């Protein structure tokens, strides 16, 4: 009887190991999630402003002067577009991630727009 129980536990452990091998992310996927790549976009200032008004002003203010979140009206002076893209995509400290609310192209457009604010 013990042999059957041990064999059953061994089978379950092997099945779980195989399932995890195929469902856990690989090194490349983890690296991509840690540092997302900003897509190539052309700056569309009007679209960036519209997205900022829809998604950002509640925390960063209507003139990007700050509020619950930091001021963004001069963020381009100390962050480049890629850094801004990473923060908006992944979130940081109290800021949530926007990767599920905005398309990567929209985030890239915002990043280019804010990078010009110096």
TrEMBL record:
N-terminal signal peptide: none
Family matches, as InterPro entries: Cyt_c-like_dom, Cyt_c-like_dom_sf, Cyt_c_BACSU-c550-type, Cyt_C_IC, Cytochrome_c550/c551-like
Any Pfam family matching the protein: Cytochrome_CBB3
Gene Ontology cellular-component annotations: membrane
Binding residues annotated for heme c, in chain numbering: 56, 59-60, 95
Superkingdom as given in the UniProt entry: Bacteria
Protein's name according to its UniProt entry: Cytochrome C
Matches recorded under Gene3D superfamilies: Cytochrome c-like domain
This protein's UniProt keywords: Electron transport, Heme, Iron, Metal-binding, Transport
Keyword Iron part of the UniProt annotation: yes
MF term (GO), any: heme binding
Domain (Cytochrome c) ranges: 43-118
């Amino acid at each position: 009887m013990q042999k059957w129980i041990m064999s059953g536990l061994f089978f379950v452990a092997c099945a779980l190991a195989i399932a995890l091998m195929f469902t856990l992310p690989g090194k490349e996927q983890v690296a991509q999630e840690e540092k997302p790549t900003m897509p190539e976009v052309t700056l569309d200032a009007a679209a960036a402003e519209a997205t900022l008004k829809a998604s950002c002003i509640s925390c960063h203010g209507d003139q990007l002067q700050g509020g619950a979140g930091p001021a963004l009206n001069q963020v381009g002076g100390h962050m480049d577009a890629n850094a801004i893209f990473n923060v908006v995509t992944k979130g940081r400290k109290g800021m949530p991630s926007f990767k599920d609310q905005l398309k990567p192209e929209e985030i890239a457009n915002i990043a280019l727009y804010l990078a010009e604010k110096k």
